[in-house]
Design a protein that fits this description.
By secondary structure, the protein is of the alpha/beta class. Strand 3 and strand 4 (61-67) form a beta hairpin. Helix 8 crosses helix 9 (257-276) and helix 9 runs antiparallel to helix 10. The termini are far apart.
């Protein structure tokens, strides 16, 4: 596999291509032989990863790293070739030799045959900077991507275009350009002769006087513009689009000329489409038809082609000023018979027949006979969740895999479509048939058409198991006549559309925070003024808290709407009064008659912290049975009102004045795997059986909240913000965590300590000399300070604190070194809090922000300093209490109390009775 990006960018953050495209065969064989020699010299048996650096002229190479294990790239290599590296490595560990291990893909060859590819694979990393706009976006040796997408086609260019379509990220398409680049692009594309008088000083600022300048600005500006970052690919495309020579870009970036020439070829096709404009939709135009066939073979989607053609028409370069739509492009190519063929990934370049149906689409095979007939009926399509991102991760892959398994258990064929090489759902044996394709309407629709020849017995699709991605596909799929299994558009629209949902909740008499919809900034300001600050702003159709935030003043609200959302009559936002209280997550399964609730998950942090970033406890520890009864009754009413068939998730706020419903999602939630494991209820499997026509009562499951198993289970989030410089680690309504852990025990304190330790959310245990905790606690959190201080002191911690917190500690009987707040001048003998943190002497920082102007973001310097020093920084007082109490020496012996999950959860899958609230 070959990196598009030169040495210096972590391979996890680089575009990766397989097989290698730019190396002459003798060079390729030289590196291959070197790798084999290294592996033999080390005596490695099983998986091994070797990374090389190769000089641009191919004359010299160096070994960067050898990992005698399966690596991150092993999953990519396995999916790219169809060769299951980990499966083979496991059999080698059991004593088998490569020549004795059958190739499960071909069914005829053995694992000693090296894979051969007759296609090209491109992997694109997906970065979290849409969630963290303030982060340092430069790339280097520290990996920053949270996920990746893979695409397969016959050429590099077509595979790259498919991968771009699969990223599912704003500003990530082939045509994407950042408006902020415009002035730099204009400067860089000026004739060089006019730039000779522009100079830059040693501080990097442009200046006029040659005598004060270090060197001409142009090469510096170009180098900075093309420095390794998450957007470098799009910056290169922007320059090529304006005519910059590929060789100039190669000289600055070190990217191989071959790759840049391929990008130039794609740009030339884009410009050709722009010149043809609306002609591209005329099936009778032979020249346009030939171009349409060419650009489809190049991997461009109908949507991108429509944008290119429309841009050409509006610029006056195209034929006709008619806006071109994706549907008009589709109709033209369907009339011309330009539809994708599907080729098989077989590990041996078609030298041997393959038994495993693992496919990719390619227009190079348009019109060719299918390699396999459509799957036998009954069959269903399971849509995966695409690349891992914050808010939509492996939890949805769990759901997709279990859905496919249950379909096969019921005698159905399970057709899987996904684009993520890191997931189990894209294992060749996780489904009856796998399609490695982007999750956009065009690709999903094409797969359904390929599996439904002549338009008969159309393959139905599950859209509730892959998170928001398939849910957003529901409308275009339904409009195309594709049946939605276990879901309907009305339910989805009523739950996702903020206006309709609020009206529905009101109609069934369930309390919700006071609020309304705003279609303009002025409306938003008037509404917030009426209901009172603070408010929480939510756009429709989002996941992971993207673009959701608090506003504490009119200026906050204006800034948030400007920064994160588009507000207009077609895309209104929901503005609600922010209510503090205990948040409770509820997952349920419904068949329209029975509403089964496996359990309630109580958040430790107060409402306002995103559910994905909160510590959750099952069963609830502080919510009264009376409030639990209110939650269950409200959940039952709203699920029936929405007419949900399958999985549904809701969040409630429990307060002294009642129980309030926040939102409902008619799909699998990120807590489904957790709740399924700790309650023993096979939630996904039940939802699949409901979609196939069964009833919960027939399966032995009753209505209401199930009785609790004899355990306490805790879900704790895992964060990666320490790897992203410039990211504020404070928790809030926008999700930041990238994973989670479970802690289980019969003692709630032990279960909580297990989870906190597993998620690395507890501070180091002090040695004999003790350790220092730096505390800066908001006034509203002071009532919880005694629990934090007592637990930390008992564990051996000393304290440093800002003046207000130090005074509160003094009242509790604890001495604390007083440090100056951010922006305050230290008194004689004092140090500033950030300066103290930067010394590295602290082992824990607890900084709970005050809810003031600047949406819970004050004292960000404290949190950034702690993160930079690798010090645990906790920003919710409830999390700090849990972390401190997890250090209790009495709990330590019990952290090793281990049982199998089957022992903790007796008789998983067996129906049990419901709770009686009488």
């Amino acid at each position: 596999m070959e990196n598009f990006d030169p040495l210096g960018v972590h391979t996890g953050d680089s575009i990766v291509v397989a097989p290698v495209q730019t190396l002459p065969d003798p060079v390729h064989q030289r590196l291959r032989s070197a790798a084999l020699n290294i592996i033999r010299a080390l005596g490695v048996e099983g998986g091994c990863n070797v990374q090389f650096a190769l000089s641009p002229d191919y004359t010299d190479y160096a070994v960067i790293e050898v990992n005698p294990r399966v690596s991150r790239s092993s999953a990519l290599a396995s999916k790219a070739t169809g060769y299951p590296i980990a499966r083979v490595a496991a059999q080698i560990a059991a004593g088998r030799r490569l020549a004795e291990i059958p190739n499960v893909v071909t069914g005829t060859t053995v694992a000693a045959f090296e894979p051969a590819l007759d296609y090209v694979v491109v992997k694109l990393p997906r970065f979290p900077f849409d969630k963290f706009p303030t982060a340092d976006r430069s790339l280097g040796s520290q990996m920053k991507a949270t996920g990746e997408v893979m695409a397969i086609d016959r050429t590099f260019g077509s595979a790259l275009n498919k991968a771009l379509r699969g990223l599912e990220q704003g500003g990530a398409g082939f045509l994407a350009e950042n408006a902020g680049w415009q002035s730099t692009l204009e400067y860089l594309m000026e004739p060089e002769v006019s730039q000779s008088s522009v100079y830059i000083d040693r501080g990097g600022l442009m200046c006029e006087a040659r005598t004060h300048a270090e060197r001409a600005a142009y090469p510096i500006v170009l180098r900075r513009f093309l420095a390794p970052s998450d957007s470098r690919l799009w910056r290169i495309l922007a320059l090529l689009r304006r005519g910059m020579p590929a060789e100039r870009i190669r000289g600055v970036t070190g990217i191989s000329s071959w790759f840049l020439w391929e990008l130039e070829r794609a740009i030339a096709l884009e410009q050709e489409v722009g010149r043809y404009g609306a002609r591209l939709t005329d099936a009778a135009d032979e020249e346009a038809a030939a171009l349409l066939a060419t650009v489809k073979r190049a991997g461009f989607g109908d949507r991108e082609l429509a944008q290119m053609a429309s841009a050409g028409a509006s610029a006056g370069t195209g034929a006709g000023a008619v806006a071109v739509t994706a549907e008009s492009i589709r109709l033209a190519r369907m009339e011309l018979g330009i539809v994708p063929g599907y080729a098989m990934v077989d590990t041996c370049a078609a030298e041997f027949a393959a038994e495993t149906p693992y496919f990719y689409a390619t227009y190079a095979a348009s019109g060719a006979e299918p390699e396999l007939p459509a799957v036998e009926r009954p069959a269903a399509l399971v849509i995966g969740s695409g690349p891992v991102r914050i808010g939509q991760g492996i939890e949805f892959d769990y759901c997709a895999v279990h859905a496919a398994a249950e379909l096969r258990e019921r005698g159905w064929q399970a057709v899987m479509i996904n684009s993520n090489p890191e997931t189990v759902s894209t294992d060749f044996d996780a489904s009856s048939r796998l399609y490695f394709e982007p999750l956009d309407p065009e690709s999903v629709r094409s797969v359904v058409e390929a599996e439904s020849p002549d338009g008969r017995d159309i393959l139905g699709a599950f859209v509730q198991f892959g998170g928001q991605t398939p849910l957003n596909l529901a409308e275009p799929l339904a409009q195309a006549g594709i049946p939605l299994l276990g879901a309907n558009l009305q339910t989805i629209d009523e739950a996702e559309d903020r206006i309709r949902f609020a009206n529905l909740v009101e109609s069934v008499g369930i309390p919700q925070p006071e609020g309304g919809m705003a279609r303009s900034v002025d409306e938003a300001l008037a509404l917030a003024e009426r209901i009172g600050y603070p408010v929480i702003v939510r756009p429709s159709f989002v996941i992971g808290g993207l673009a959701i935030d608090f506003s504490y003043s009119p200026s906050d609200l204006v800034e948030q709407l400007r920064r994160a959302t588009v507000v207009d009559p077609d895309r209104p936002v929901r503005i609600d009064r922010y209510l503090e209280g205990v948040e409770v997550d509820v997952d349920a399964i419904s068949d329209g008659e029975t509403v089964l609730i496996p359990g309630l998950l109580e958040h430790i942090e107060r409402a306002g912290v995103h559910s994905g970033d909160s510590v959750g406890m099952f069963p609830p520890q502080t919510v009264s049975m009376a409030d639990q009864e209110l939650i269950v009754a409200a959940m039952d009413r709203i699920v029936r009102a929405l007419n949900v068939h399958g999985l549904v998730n809701a969040q409630f706020i429990v307060r002294e004045d009642g129980v309030y419903l926040i939102e409902v999602n008619p799909r699998a939630s990120r807590t489904v795997p957790f709740m399924s494991k700790v309650t023993g209820v096979p939630m996904v499997k039940l939802a699949v059986r409901i979609a196939l026509g069964e009833k919960l009562a027939e399966m032995g499951w009753g209505n209401g909240l199930l009785a609790e198993p004899p355990l306490v289970a805790v879900k704790a989030p895992a964060f990666s913000t320490a790897k992203l410089r410039g990211v504020d680690p404070s928790v809030g309504p926008g999700m930041q965590s990238t994973g989670e852990v479970i802690g289980i025990h019969t003692d709630p304190r032990v279960a909580l300590a297990k989870a906190m330790q597993g998620a690395a959310l507890i501070p180091p245990r002090p040695g004999v000399e003790g350790a220092l905790a730096v505390l800066s606690i908001a006034e509203r959190d002071v009532p919880n300070l005694p629990r934090v201080a007592n637990a930390l002191a008992r564990a051996g911690y000393r304290f440093a604190a800002t003046a207000g917190t130090a005074a509160a500690l003094s009242r509790l009987g604890y001495e604390a070194q007083v440090v100056a707040k951010v922006g305050e001048q230290p008194e004689p003998g004092q140090v500033g809090i950030v300066d103290l943190i930067n010394t590295g002497s602290a082992r824990l920082v607890v900084n709970t922000p005050s809810p003031k102007s600047g949406p819970v973001r004050d004292a960000v310097e404290i949190r950034l300093a702690a993160t930079a020093m690798g010090i645990l920084c906790l920003t919710a007082i409830e999390t700090a209490v849990a972390a401190a109490e997890a250090l209790d020496p009495e709990l330590q012996p019990h952290l090793a109390d281990v049982k199998s999950l089957g022992e903790w959860v007796p008789e998983p899958g067996k129906p049990r009775g419901a709770v009686s609230f009488e």
